[in-house]
Design goal:
β1 and β2 (47-52) form a beta hairpin. The chain has 16 helices and 12 strands. The termini are far apart. The strands form 4 sheets. It has a 5-stranded mixed sheet with strand order 1-2-8-5-3, with helices on both faces. The protein has 2 domains: 1-70 and 309-370, Uridine Diphospho-n-acetylenolpyruvylglucosamine Reductase, domain 2; 71-308 and 371-429, Cytochrome p450, CATH 1.10.630.10. It is α+β, with helices and mostly antiparallel strands and 430 residues long. The chain binds protoporphyrin IX containing FE. Residues 86-87, 98, 240-241, 244-245, 248-249, 252, 306-308, 311, 371-373, 377, 379-381, 384-385 line the site of protoporphyrin IX containing FE. Protoporphyrin IX containing FE is lined by residues 86-87, 98, 240-241, 244-245, 248-249, 252, 306-308, 311, 371-373, 377, 379-381, 384-385.
């Protein structure tokens, strides 16, 4: 059996150069893929993983080989934080939890969320003074938090936003890549207060809801009325949805604004589309279908900067991928980011070209475009996130004129892929 290639000195040097250019580790992965192929081993002191890239790899991880892979990784911060959240469970337990949450994210429910989505946007936009420079990264987080808690938990987050802001950022940094990946002995100091604050908030939310009688119409209601769920299991799902459901949208929205700021001609076309269809009224569910350019912009933003840029698993037994043997216990990762930029699948892969997703354009080949993963464990919030992004962006474009400040931005690998140091834009009322 062939040995899985590992970067040599020269590939390492090229990777370092690319990392420096892009100010991001993602540059290194792209170089390794070009020099070593669609499977390579990343072996550093204390850290060992097999990286898979491309359509065949994605199909393997997400579909054909998925029963031989585990999502749950004991000892990883994500598992320690989310405990038995749907994201880190396997087998029947996963399937049961997912089934119990599905109705709240069903397509039919989405139309009932539209008003909350544009109202959250209006609430945050009201803070932007004419002519002021605004960092869109935290602003998109504010909107995403308001919308997520209002739609799925029926809770107004406004009075708690500032009090819990630091705790949320701490929670995200707890699960972001860092030195902990190299040794479980490295102490993780400075997180306890933030994590406790989040728990206090969620357990109180559960208590308050249990005291209220009524038909469950939202996710929290579904969970508290499920006889198989105790408070701890509900807390795990709430935290999972809160983190997975708002940080991804924050990244998508801020990258999209960044890309539009870099391409003012496309921003103008999107603005014209939105204003023609909506006039000065808030968007309705039906009108969302009539904004094709906005759809294409969101799709292209997800291709260039997929908020979840890789998936991580553990091999539950010896695996055979494309003739290579991956021993049981190995950490296996598939890179969405690199797959989205492979010249084999995409013309001018690094360029922002929304029209590549136009209805008349050829569809991407299967498993080459995976912003929401794929297979039975694809993103449970995919439809929700797409509607949400569209409503929020339509509302911003309808009401504001935005100009990007000339600051260098790089892709930062936090809990999601974020534009750092931020997306600074001057805003004017339209
Ligand atoms: C732009 C927004 C979003 C993106 C790009 C995104 C992306 C993804 C991806 C790629 C996966 C699969 C990861 C893997 O294969 O390892 C995933 C899973 C998941 N996402 Fe999302 N997501 C988004 C929004 C949301 C929202 C809004 C929610 C909840 C309201 C959510 C909840 C989840 C959960 C719970 C899973 C795990 C599903 C399972 O294992 O059964 N996501 N997401």
């Amino acid at each position: 059996m062939p040995i899985i290639p590992t970067p040599t000195g020269l590939a390492g040097l090229h990777a370092l150069r690319q990392m420096w250019r892009e100010r991001s580790v993602l540059g290194a992965l792209t170089v390794f893929n070009r020099e070593l192929g669609n499977i390579f081993r990343l072996s550093l002191p204390g850290f060992d993983a097999v990286m898979l890239v491309g359509a065949e790899a994605a199909r393997f991880v997400l579909v054909s080989g998925r029963n031989d892979l585990r999502w749950r990784m004991e000892g990883d911060p994500v598992t320690m934080l989310l405990r038995h959240g749907v994201l880190v469970e396997d087998g029947d337990s996963h399937d049961q939890i997912r089934r119990s949450m599905n109705p709240a994210l069903h397509k039919q429910m989405l139309q009932t969320y539209i008003e909350s989505m544009w109202r959250g946007t209006d609430q945050v936009m009201a803070r932007w003074h004419d002519g002021a420079v605004v960092d869109m990264l935290p602003e998109m987080r504010r909107i995403a938090l308001l919308v997520l808690l209002d739609t799925l938990f029926k809770v107004d987050f406004t009075p708690d936003m500032d009090r819990l802001w630091r705790a949320i950022l701490k929670t995200l940094s707890y699960i972001s890549p860092g030195l902990w990946m190299f040794s479980s002995c490295i102490p993780r100091l400075g997180y306890a207060d933030g994590l406790r604050q989040m728990d206090d908030y969620l357990y109180q939310m559960i208590r308050l809801r249990r005291a209220r009688i009524g038909e469950p119409t939202d996710l929290l209601g579904l969970l508290v009325s499920d006889p198989n769920m105790d408070d701890n299991l509900i807390r795990d799902q709430l935290l999972t949805m809160l983190i997975a459901g708002h940080d991804t949208s924050t990244a998508l929205l801020s990258w999209t604004l960044y890309l539009l700021g870099k391409h003012p001609d496309i921003m103008q076309q999107a603005q014209a589309e939105v204003r023609t269809i909506l006039g000065d009224q808030p968007p309705t569910f039906d009108q969302l279908r009539s904004l094709p350019l906005l759809d294409q912009i969101i799709d292209e933003s997800l291709r260039l900067y997929p908020p979840i840029h890789l998936g991580s698993r553990r091999a539950a037994q010896d695996l055979d991928f494309s003739g290579y043997q991956i021993p049981s216990g190995t950490r296996v990762m598939y890179s969405i980011y690199v797959t989205h930029r492979m010249p084999e699948y995409w013309d001018a892969p690094d360029e922002f070209r929304p029209r590549r997703f136009a209805p008349a354009a050829p569809k991407p080949a299967p498993y080459t475009y995976l912003p929401f993963g794929g297979g039975p464990r694809n993103c449970i919030g995919a439809a929700y996130a797409q509607v949400e992004a569209k409503v929020i962006l339509a509302r911003i474009l309808q009401r504001r004129i935005l100009t990007l400040s000339p600051r260098r931005v790089h892709a930062y690998m936090g809990a999601t892929l974020e534009p750092r140091p931020g997306v600074f834009m001057t805003t004017h009322t339209a």
